Sequence to fold (346 residues):
Amino acid sequence: MKCLSPILAAGLVVISGTAFAGEQLSVVGSWSGLPLHKQYEAPFWTDKISSASNGRITANLTTHDQMGIKGGDVFRMLGDGIFDVGMTVADYAVSDAPALEGLDVPLVATDAAAAYKMVKAARPLVDDIFRDVFKAKVLGIAPYPPQVVFCNADIKGLGDLKGKKIRASGRMTAKLLEALGAEGVTIGFGEVPGALQRGVVDCAITGAGSGYSAGWWEVTTHLMPIPLGGWDPVVTAINYEKWDSLSAEDQTLLQEQVTSQLEKPAWDSAQNALQADIACLTGEGDCAGEKRNLKLVKVSQSDLDNARDILINQVLPAWAKRAGGNWGKRWNETVGKVTGVEIRLE
Fold:
Protein backbone atom coordinates (compact mmCIF):
# COMPACT_ATOMS: atom_id res chain seq x y z
CA MET A 1 0.00 0.00 0.00
CA LYS A 2 1.30 3.49 -0.81
CA CYS A 3 2.27 5.85 1.99
CA LEU A 4 0.08 8.95 2.08
CA SER A 5 0.65 12.22 3.90
CA PRO A 6 -1.64 12.91 6.88
CA ILE A 7 -3.36 15.74 4.95
CA LEU A 8 -3.91 13.54 1.91
CA ALA A 9 -5.12 10.65 4.04
CA ALA A 10 -7.60 12.96 5.75
CA GLY A 11 -8.80 14.19 2.37
CA LEU A 12 -9.34 10.65 1.17
CA VAL A 13 -11.39 9.88 4.27
CA VAL A 14 -13.62 12.81 3.36
CA ILE A 15 -14.19 11.65 -0.23
CA SER A 16 -14.39 7.93 0.49
CA GLY A 17 -17.48 8.01 2.66
CA THR A 18 -19.40 4.86 3.46
CA ALA A 19 -21.47 2.45 1.41
CA PHE A 20 -24.51 3.96 -0.30
CA ALA A 21 -27.12 2.59 -2.67
CA GLY A 22 -26.40 3.60 -6.26
CA GLU A 23 -23.16 5.22 -7.33
CA GLN A 24 -21.30 7.58 -5.03
CA LEU A 25 -18.31 9.04 -6.83
CA SER A 26 -15.23 10.34 -5.06
CA VAL A 27 -14.45 13.62 -6.87
CA VAL A 28 -11.42 15.92 -6.68
CA GLY A 29 -12.04 19.37 -8.13
CA SER A 30 -9.81 22.20 -9.30
CA TRP A 31 -8.73 25.18 -7.16
CA SER A 32 -11.35 25.62 -4.43
CA GLY A 33 -11.19 29.42 -4.26
CA LEU A 34 -11.59 30.18 -7.97
CA PRO A 35 -14.80 30.90 -9.89
CA LEU A 36 -14.74 27.75 -12.06
CA HIS A 37 -15.00 25.56 -8.98
CA LYS A 38 -17.35 27.73 -6.96
CA GLN A 39 -19.76 28.55 -9.78
CA TYR A 40 -19.73 25.34 -11.84
CA GLU A 41 -17.92 22.33 -10.37
CA ALA A 42 -19.27 22.50 -6.82
CA PRO A 43 -22.96 23.02 -7.77
CA PHE A 44 -22.72 20.25 -10.36
CA TRP A 45 -21.26 17.57 -8.09
CA THR A 46 -23.08 18.51 -4.90
CA ASP A 47 -26.54 19.04 -6.40
CA LYS A 48 -27.11 18.85 -10.15
CA ILE A 49 -25.93 15.29 -10.84
CA SER A 50 -27.91 13.95 -7.90
CA SER A 51 -31.05 15.77 -9.03
CA ALA A 52 -30.68 14.65 -12.66
CA SER A 53 -30.27 11.01 -11.61
CA ASN A 54 -33.00 11.09 -8.92
CA GLY A 55 -30.34 10.40 -6.34
CA ARG A 56 -28.88 7.42 -8.17
CA ILE A 57 -25.51 9.18 -8.73
CA THR A 58 -24.06 11.27 -5.92
CA ALA A 59 -20.60 12.60 -5.17
CA ASN A 60 -18.29 13.34 -2.28
CA LEU A 61 -16.39 16.44 -3.43
CA THR A 62 -13.11 17.93 -2.33
CA THR A 63 -10.34 19.74 -4.24
CA HIS A 64 -6.66 19.10 -4.75
CA ASP A 65 -5.63 22.15 -2.71
CA GLN A 66 -7.93 21.11 0.15
CA MET A 67 -6.32 17.66 0.05
CA GLY A 68 -2.83 19.13 0.08
CA ILE A 69 -1.75 17.54 -3.21
CA LYS A 70 -0.18 19.25 -6.20
CA GLY A 71 -2.15 19.86 -9.39
CA GLY A 72 0.35 17.73 -11.30
CA ASP A 73 -0.50 14.72 -9.13
CA VAL A 74 -4.25 14.76 -9.76
CA PHE A 75 -4.37 12.73 -12.98
CA ARG A 76 -1.60 10.37 -11.84
CA MET A 77 -3.62 9.54 -8.75
CA LEU A 78 -6.78 9.30 -10.83
CA GLY A 79 -5.10 6.69 -13.02
CA ASP A 80 -4.09 4.76 -9.89
CA GLY A 81 -7.74 4.65 -8.80
CA ILE A 82 -7.21 6.67 -5.62
CA PHE A 83 -10.38 8.60 -6.50
CA ASP A 84 -12.99 8.30 -9.25
CA VAL A 85 -13.13 11.73 -10.92
CA GLY A 86 -10.42 14.37 -11.18
CA MET A 87 -10.47 17.94 -12.46
CA THR A 88 -7.46 20.15 -12.93
CA VAL A 89 -5.60 22.32 -15.43
CA ALA A 90 -4.31 20.25 -18.35
CA ASP A 91 -0.98 22.12 -18.27
CA TYR A 92 -0.30 20.68 -14.82
CA ALA A 93 0.04 17.24 -16.40
CA VAL A 94 2.39 18.01 -19.30
CA SER A 95 5.44 16.53 -17.56
CA ASP A 96 3.70 13.15 -17.88
CA ALA A 97 2.30 13.86 -21.36
CA PRO A 98 4.14 16.55 -23.38
CA ALA A 99 1.62 16.12 -26.20
CA LEU A 100 -0.99 17.66 -23.90
CA GLU A 101 0.68 21.06 -24.34
CA GLY A 102 -1.03 21.23 -27.73
CA LEU A 103 -4.40 21.75 -26.04
CA ASP A 104 -3.53 25.20 -24.72
CA VAL A 105 -1.56 27.29 -27.21
CA PRO A 106 -0.97 30.98 -26.42
CA LEU A 107 -2.24 33.79 -28.68
CA VAL A 108 -4.08 31.49 -31.10
CA ALA A 109 -7.56 32.08 -29.64
CA THR A 110 -8.29 35.69 -28.71
CA ASP A 111 -11.90 35.19 -27.64
CA ALA A 112 -14.01 32.47 -26.00
CA ALA A 113 -15.67 31.34 -29.24
CA ALA A 114 -12.30 30.75 -30.90
CA ALA A 115 -10.95 29.02 -27.77
CA TYR A 116 -13.94 26.67 -27.72
CA LYS A 117 -13.38 25.72 -31.37
CA MET A 118 -9.72 25.06 -30.64
CA VAL A 119 -10.49 22.85 -27.63
CA LYS A 120 -13.24 20.99 -29.49
CA ALA A 121 -10.84 20.27 -32.36
CA ALA A 122 -8.20 19.03 -29.92
CA ARG A 123 -10.64 16.75 -28.06
CA PRO A 124 -9.76 13.51 -29.95
CA LEU A 125 -6.08 14.07 -29.14
CA VAL A 126 -6.85 14.74 -25.48
CA ASP A 127 -9.08 11.66 -25.29
CA ASP A 128 -6.23 9.47 -26.55
CA ILE A 129 -3.69 11.00 -24.16
CA PHE A 130 -5.89 10.46 -21.12
CA ARG A 131 -6.75 6.91 -22.13
CA ASP A 132 -3.13 5.90 -22.75
CA VAL A 133 -1.29 7.89 -20.07
CA PHE A 134 -3.76 8.33 -17.22
CA LYS A 135 -6.13 5.37 -17.78
CA ALA A 136 -9.01 7.83 -17.70
CA LYS A 137 -11.93 8.90 -19.87
CA VAL A 138 -12.36 12.61 -20.54
CA LEU A 139 -15.87 13.82 -19.66
CA GLY A 140 -15.41 17.52 -20.40
CA ILE A 141 -13.02 20.43 -20.86
CA ALA A 142 -13.92 23.82 -19.39
CA PRO A 143 -11.97 27.09 -19.55
CA TYR A 144 -10.45 29.30 -16.99
CA PRO A 145 -10.50 32.89 -18.27
CA PRO A 146 -7.69 33.67 -20.74
CA GLN A 147 -4.32 33.80 -19.04
CA VAL A 148 -3.28 37.46 -18.97
CA VAL A 149 -0.25 39.32 -17.65
CA PHE A 150 -0.09 40.97 -14.22
CA CYS A 151 3.06 43.02 -13.57
CA ASN A 152 4.58 44.71 -10.55
CA ALA A 153 6.57 46.85 -12.95
CA ASP A 154 6.01 49.70 -15.38
CA ILE A 155 5.28 48.14 -18.77
CA LYS A 156 3.87 49.75 -21.91
CA GLY A 157 3.79 46.78 -24.30
CA LEU A 158 5.04 43.29 -25.05
CA GLY A 159 8.55 44.56 -25.70
CA ASP A 160 8.85 45.62 -22.06
CA LEU A 161 8.63 41.99 -20.93
CA LYS A 162 12.13 41.40 -22.27
CA GLY A 163 14.57 40.70 -19.44
CA LYS A 164 11.84 40.28 -16.84
CA LYS A 165 11.19 37.20 -14.72
CA ILE A 166 7.65 36.05 -15.35
CA ARG A 167 5.62 33.29 -13.74
CA ALA A 168 4.26 31.24 -16.64
CA SER A 169 0.91 29.46 -16.55
CA GLY A 170 2.18 26.49 -18.55
CA ARG A 171 5.19 25.02 -20.33
CA MET A 172 4.38 26.36 -23.79
CA THR A 173 3.80 29.82 -22.34
CA ALA A 174 7.19 29.60 -20.62
CA LYS A 175 8.81 28.71 -23.95
CA LEU A 176 7.08 31.65 -25.64
CA LEU A 177 8.22 34.03 -22.90
CA GLU A 178 11.80 32.84 -23.33
CA ALA A 179 11.55 33.37 -27.09
CA LEU A 180 10.33 36.92 -26.39
CA GLY A 181 13.44 37.55 -24.27
CA ALA A 182 11.86 37.10 -20.84
CA GLU A 183 12.63 34.42 -18.25
CA GLY A 184 9.81 31.94 -17.66
CA VAL A 185 9.58 30.92 -14.01
CA THR A 186 7.60 28.01 -12.55
CA ILE A 187 5.80 28.95 -9.33
CA GLY A 188 2.66 27.43 -7.84
CA PHE A 189 -0.47 29.57 -8.08
CA GLY A 190 -0.76 30.03 -4.32
CA GLU A 191 2.86 31.19 -4.03
CA VAL A 192 2.63 33.93 -6.65
CA PRO A 193 1.54 36.92 -4.49
CA GLY A 194 4.52 36.45 -2.16
CA ALA A 195 6.90 36.04 -5.11
CA LEU A 196 5.64 39.26 -6.69
CA GLN A 197 5.87 41.12 -3.40
CA ARG A 198 9.44 39.96 -2.73
CA GLY A 199 10.60 40.62 -6.30
CA VAL A 200 11.27 36.95 -7.05
CA VAL A 201 9.26 37.59 -10.24
CA ASP A 202 8.38 40.85 -11.97
CA CYS A 203 5.19 39.62 -13.60
CA ALA A 204 2.89 36.62 -13.49
CA ILE A 205 0.33 35.08 -15.81
CA THR A 206 -3.07 33.76 -14.78
CA GLY A 207 -6.74 34.26 -15.58
CA ALA A 208 -8.07 37.76 -14.95
CA GLY A 209 -10.81 36.41 -12.68
CA SER A 210 -8.38 34.13 -10.87
CA GLY A 211 -6.03 37.03 -10.22
CA TYR A 212 -8.89 39.17 -8.99
CA SER A 213 -10.20 36.45 -6.63
CA ALA A 214 -6.71 35.71 -5.31
CA GLY A 215 -5.86 39.36 -4.64
CA TRP A 216 -3.06 39.76 -7.18
CA TRP A 217 -4.13 43.39 -7.57
CA GLU A 218 -2.59 43.98 -4.13
CA VAL A 219 0.92 43.14 -5.35
CA THR A 220 0.85 44.33 -8.97
CA THR A 221 0.41 47.64 -10.75
CA HIS A 222 -0.20 46.83 -14.45
CA LEU A 223 -2.50 44.49 -16.38
CA MET A 224 -1.93 43.38 -19.99
CA PRO A 225 -5.15 41.56 -21.04
CA ILE A 226 -3.97 39.44 -23.95
CA PRO A 227 -4.07 35.60 -23.84
CA LEU A 228 -0.32 35.20 -23.52
CA GLY A 229 -0.96 32.05 -21.50
CA GLY A 230 -3.83 30.63 -23.54
CA TRP A 231 -7.09 29.70 -21.77
CA ASP A 232 -5.76 27.14 -19.26
CA PRO A 233 -8.40 24.47 -19.97
CA VAL A 234 -9.47 22.32 -17.03
CA VAL A 235 -10.10 18.67 -17.88
CA THR A 236 -12.74 16.61 -16.08
CA ALA A 237 -11.92 12.90 -16.33
CA ILE A 238 -13.07 9.66 -14.74
CA ASN A 239 -10.94 6.62 -13.96
CA TYR A 240 -11.58 4.07 -16.73
CA GLU A 241 -12.16 1.13 -14.38
CA LYS A 242 -14.80 3.17 -12.58
CA TRP A 243 -16.33 4.25 -15.89
CA ASP A 244 -16.52 0.66 -17.11
CA SER A 245 -18.21 -0.37 -13.87
CA LEU A 246 -21.11 2.03 -14.48
CA SER A 247 -24.23 0.88 -16.26
CA ALA A 248 -24.76 2.10 -19.82
CA GLU A 249 -27.64 4.24 -18.53
CA ASP A 250 -25.44 5.90 -15.91
CA GLN A 251 -22.61 6.44 -18.38
CA THR A 252 -24.96 8.22 -20.78
CA LEU A 253 -26.50 10.33 -18.02
CA LEU A 254 -23.16 11.33 -16.51
CA GLN A 255 -21.66 12.32 -19.88
CA GLU A 256 -24.75 14.28 -20.93
CA GLN A 257 -24.92 16.12 -17.61
CA VAL A 258 -21.22 17.07 -17.55
CA THR A 259 -21.53 18.40 -21.10
CA SER A 260 -24.73 20.39 -20.58
CA GLN A 261 -24.54 21.42 -16.92
CA LEU A 262 -20.81 21.91 -16.26
CA GLU A 263 -18.84 22.31 -19.48
CA LYS A 264 -21.33 24.36 -21.54
CA PRO A 265 -22.24 26.93 -18.85
CA ALA A 266 -18.55 27.56 -18.15
CA TRP A 267 -17.88 28.24 -21.84
CA ASP A 268 -21.04 30.34 -22.22
CA SER A 269 -19.89 32.74 -19.51
CA ALA A 270 -16.20 32.88 -20.43
CA GLN A 271 -16.16 35.96 -22.68
CA ASN A 272 -18.43 38.14 -20.55
CA ALA A 273 -16.52 37.06 -17.45
CA LEU A 274 -13.26 38.26 -19.00
CA GLN A 275 -14.67 41.70 -19.76
CA ALA A 276 -16.14 42.02 -16.25
CA ASP A 277 -12.88 40.86 -14.64
CA ILE A 278 -10.85 43.44 -16.55
CA ALA A 279 -13.31 46.14 -15.51
CA CYS A 280 -13.00 45.11 -11.86
CA LEU A 281 -9.20 44.95 -11.96
CA THR A 282 -8.73 48.31 -13.68
CA GLY A 283 -11.76 50.21 -12.40
CA GLU A 284 -12.74 50.94 -16.01
CA GLY A 285 -16.29 49.79 -16.77
CA ASP A 286 -19.07 47.97 -14.94
CA CYS A 287 -17.99 45.76 -12.04
CA ALA A 288 -20.30 43.81 -9.74
CA GLY A 289 -17.62 43.65 -7.04
CA GLU A 290 -15.05 46.10 -5.71
CA LYS A 291 -13.14 48.04 -8.34
CA ARG A 292 -9.34 48.01 -8.26
CA ASN A 293 -6.93 50.34 -10.04
CA LEU A 294 -4.43 48.37 -12.10
CA LYS A 295 -3.16 50.28 -15.11
CA LEU A 296 -4.52 48.79 -18.35
CA VAL A 297 -1.76 48.14 -20.90
CA LYS A 298 -2.86 47.90 -24.52
CA VAL A 299 -0.78 45.90 -26.95
CA SER A 300 -0.19 47.06 -30.51
CA GLN A 301 -1.11 44.87 -33.46
CA SER A 302 2.52 44.83 -34.55
CA ASP A 303 3.55 43.44 -31.13
CA LEU A 304 0.90 40.74 -31.41
CA ASP A 305 1.92 39.85 -34.94
CA ASN A 306 5.55 39.56 -33.87
CA ALA A 307 4.68 37.32 -30.92
CA ARG A 308 2.48 35.08 -33.09
CA ASP A 309 5.27 34.79 -35.64
CA ILE A 310 7.65 33.61 -32.90
CA LEU A 311 5.02 31.19 -31.63
CA ILE A 312 4.35 29.65 -35.04
CA ASN A 313 7.95 29.51 -36.29
CA GLN A 314 9.82 28.66 -33.08
CA VAL A 315 7.64 27.54 -30.17
CA LEU A 316 5.18 25.22 -31.92
CA PRO A 317 7.81 23.33 -33.99
CA ALA A 318 9.83 22.81 -30.77
CA TRP A 319 6.71 21.41 -29.10
CA ALA A 320 6.09 19.00 -31.98
CA LYS A 321 9.63 17.64 -31.52
CA ARG A 322 9.17 17.42 -27.75
CA ALA A 323 5.86 15.57 -28.10
CA GLY A 324 7.32 13.17 -30.66
CA GLY A 325 5.39 10.64 -32.71
CA ASN A 326 2.75 12.07 -35.02
CA TRP A 327 1.32 14.61 -32.58
CA GLY A 328 2.40 17.60 -34.66
CA LYS A 329 0.73 16.12 -37.74
CA ARG A 330 -2.45 15.34 -35.81
CA TRP A 331 -2.47 18.88 -34.38
CA ASN A 332 -2.20 20.39 -37.87
CA GLU A 333 -5.08 18.20 -39.08
CA THR A 334 -7.36 19.19 -36.19
CA VAL A 335 -6.51 22.33 -34.23
CA GLY A 336 -4.48 23.81 -37.05
CA LYS A 337 -7.36 23.42 -39.45
CA VAL A 338 -9.81 25.44 -37.32
CA THR A 339 -7.28 28.09 -36.27
CA GLY A 340 -5.47 28.59 -39.57
CA VAL A 341 -2.12 27.84 -37.91
CA GLU A 342 0.19 25.21 -39.37
CA ILE A 343 3.25 23.83 -37.61
CA ARG A 344 6.25 23.37 -39.89
CA LEU A 345 7.27 19.75 -39.42
CA GLU A 346 10.60 18.26 -40.31
